Amino acid sequence: MSGPYARWMDRWETQLANVDQNRVQRPFEWGLDWLDFAPGLPKPNGHDPAAFLAAYSDAAVAVSDRIFDHRRFPPRSFALSGSTLSFPSVLDSPHPENNTVYAEYFPAPGATRAVLVIPQWNSDDQSHLSLCALFRKLGITALRLSKAYHHRRKPPETARADYHVSSNLGRTIHATCQSVLDARCAIDFLEQQGFERIGIVGTSLGSCVALLTAAHDARLRAAAFNHVSMYFADVVWTGMSCRHIRASLEGNVTSEQLRRWWLSISPAAYLDKLSHRDLRSRLIWGRYDTTFRPEYSALVLDGFRQRGLAHDVFCLPCGHYTTGKFPFAWMDAWAICRYLYKFL
Q1: Using CA atoms, how far apart are residues 228 and 208, in angstroms rounded to an integer?
Q2: Which one of 18, 41, 77, 158 has the minimum C-beta count within 10 Å?
Q3: pLDDT at 44 over 90
Q4: For 51-109, how does the pLDDT look when each residue is reduced to its tens digit (9 = 90+)?
Q5: Which pairing describes strands 141-145 and 113-118: parallel, antiparallel, or unpaired?
Q6: What one-character-per-residue DSSP string does 9-76 give?
Q7: CB burial string 90-120: b at 16+ within 10 A, e below
């Protein structure tokens, strides 16, 4: 970085990233027992986990319409208590707390449009509620989804949402797939309420989940992907917020291997699925982002442009953590809400 503004922003980002002192460096694990072995997917041979993960990733991308199809599971019933929606996750985990999905519902009187909102990794239970309230003021119903291992879904032994992104390779795949499937079930709920014009907003890790959801669910008509990166592995390998995870991965995997093994949960694998779709997308990135680094965001922007996908780009003059601070939080919220209001 060069220039006084860039250096100031870098110092501020580093300061905010170091506020949390509860990051736990967990051991490296292959986690093959966490993987979904639906028809068309290979099963471990017990000899070469690296070769198996490469083969599994390729196969999972090829049959992703099945991997991310929530309809292959029995239909889920929804319960709305006050403003809180809950329903059983279609993809179980060994953690009972994680197997119930929660979402906060913000119905707008007389609304004909709705948006599913998916916050960032390690978001607290208040995250994005103000954004949902803003959508409601604009006459758009909003539903804030709690991803796997977040909020009430967090197992008691964890202080953070460590089990969604970690040095356990298979569990990270499982958690991301679970969040996508949960998102598709949440869209079912919105559809049951009579909404036909449904959009999606995702931030950071939520942006990845939202893009994977949008690629596999044609009911979505507009999207705002708030901080974007092409490969799941790039964020973990280079992002400031994932340094403790990289410390466990190094010596066991390379960045190139991690890209390959986590391809099935990466936007790079599914941009082609957005072709010939009536989906308008806003791609938001931070010029000084040290977590979703600009060079990796640029790959997404190029990917949309090369495929002729309907989109526009909004650049924030800040980083990742600073997006949540004034005035950038207001700029970000306005960029999201204005776009969805116009195109949804």
Answers
A1: 7
A2: 77
A3: no
A4: 999 999 999 999 999 999 999 998 889 999 999 999 999 999 999 999 999 999 999 99
A5: parallel
A6: HHHHHHHHHTS------PPPB--GGGS---TT-----SS-HHHHHHHHHHHHHHTHHHHT-GGGSPPP
A7: bbebebeebbebbbbbbebeebebbbbbbbb
Region 139-164: what's the mean pLDDT? 97
Q: Which residues of 183-194 are buried (b: 16+ CB within 10 A; e: fewer)?
A: bbbbbbbbeebe
Beta-carbon contacts of residue 293 (< 8 Å; ≥ 6 apart):
229, 234, 238, 239
Tokens of 242: 């994932």
Q: Where are the beta strands (DSSP E) in 146-296?
A: 197-203, 220-226, 280-286
DSSP letters, 97-118, are GGGEEEEEEEPPTT--EEEEEE
Angle, alpha carbons 247-203-210 (nearest 5°): 100
Q: Which residue has the tokens 């119930």?
A: 100
**pTM of the full structure:** 0.97
Q: Are strands 197-203 and 113-118 parallel, antiparallel or unpaired?
A: parallel
Bridge partner list, 282: 224, 312
Q: Is 220 helix (H, G, I), strand (E, B) or coil?
A: strand
Residue 224 dihedral angles phi and psi, to the nearest 5° = -125, 115
Classify burial at 273, counting beta carbons within 10 Å of its beta carbon; exposed 0-12, middle 13-18, buried 19 or more: middle
Q: How far is CA 112 from CA 103, 184, 195, in A?
A: 19, 19, 6
Q: In the block, which residue shows the tokens 């958690």? A: 175
**Per-residue pLDDT tens over the stretch 309-336:** 999 999 999 999 999 999 999 999 999 9
What does the radius of gyration of the chain's CA atoms come to, in whole angstroms? 19
**DSSP label at 156?**
T
Q: Is 173 helix (H, G, I), strand (E, B) or coil?
A: helix
Q: For 335, how many CA atoms within 13 A lie in the half-sphere containing its CB? A: 25
Q: CA-CA distance, 325 to 290, in Å (whole number)?
A: 16
Q: Shortest CA distance to 85 belongs to which of 186, 191, 198? A: 186
